[in-house]
Amino acid sequence: MTLRWLSAGAIGLATAAATALLAWLVSPVAPGTSAVVFGFTALPFGAMLGWILLIAPKTAEAVYSSGDSIESHWATTASSGTATDLVCILGLTLTVVSIARAEPPTTLLLIGLLLAAFASFIARYAYARHRALSE
Question: Cα separation of 99 and 101, whole Å?
Answer without folding.
Answer: 5
